[in-house]
């Protein structure tokens, strides 16, 4: 084992600790931001569709942080879904002032992201099936 490999392994814990710390900060900040957003809605005594989209984005971010802590990985589809929701919110909020081509472009981006999420979900299903098949073949030996 060379010197560089030992050094890399000894620093690996910093990456893990940094990732967990930053995700915890993101989770806490998201909870605070959602509470502040809800407070603003209560003060305004109005709930609009963009408000609901924003709350949904907060829930998805909290879910993504929770998914990381339960599995130690972030499913790729969650950030894609957050991006789709953010684009939908943008269209709902600004569609009256936006040019038709811009709305079409954003709708196209939603379509591309949706296809990507679908492909990634297929990849996950195929990977899980491969793991199951591997386990079955090992247990039958």
From TrEMBL:
Principal location listed in the UniProt entry: membrane
Ranges in a coiled coil: none
UniProt keywords, alphabetically: Cell membrane, Membrane, Transmembrane, Transmembrane helix
Highest taxon above the source species: Bacteria
Membrane topology: Multi-pass membrane protein
Location relative to the cell: Cell inner membrane
GO biological process, one term: cellular response to phosphate starvation
InterPro entries with a match to the protein in the record: P_starv_induced_PsiE, P_starv_induced_PsiE-like
Keyword Cell membrane: yes
GO terms under cellular component: plasma membrane
Transmembrane feature ranges: 21-39, 51-69, 76-94, 100-122
Family, similarity comment: Belongs to the PsiE family.
Name of the protein in its database record: Protein PsiE
Organism (species): SAR86 cluster bacterium SAR86E
The organism's taxonomic lineage, starting at the top: Bacteria, Pseudomonadati, Pseudomonadota, Gammaproteobacteria, SAR86 cluster
């Amino acid at each position: 084992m060379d010197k560089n490999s030992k050094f890399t392994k000894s620093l690996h814990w910093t990456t893990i600790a940094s990732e967990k710390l930053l995700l915890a900060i993101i989770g806490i900040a998201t909870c605070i931001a959602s509470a502040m957003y809800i407070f603003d809605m209560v003060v305004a005594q109005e709930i609009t569709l963009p408000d609901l989209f924003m709350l949904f984005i907060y829930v998805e971010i909290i879910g993504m942080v929770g998914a990381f802590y339960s599995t130690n990985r972030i499913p790729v589809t969650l950030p894609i879904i957050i991006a789709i929701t953010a684009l939908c919110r943008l269209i709902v909020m600004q569609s009256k002032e936006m040019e038709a081509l811009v709305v079409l472009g954003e709708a196209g981006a939603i379509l591309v992201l949706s296809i990507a999420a679908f492909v990634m979900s297929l990849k996950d299903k195929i990977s899980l099936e491969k793991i199951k098949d591997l386990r079955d073949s090992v247990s039958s030996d």
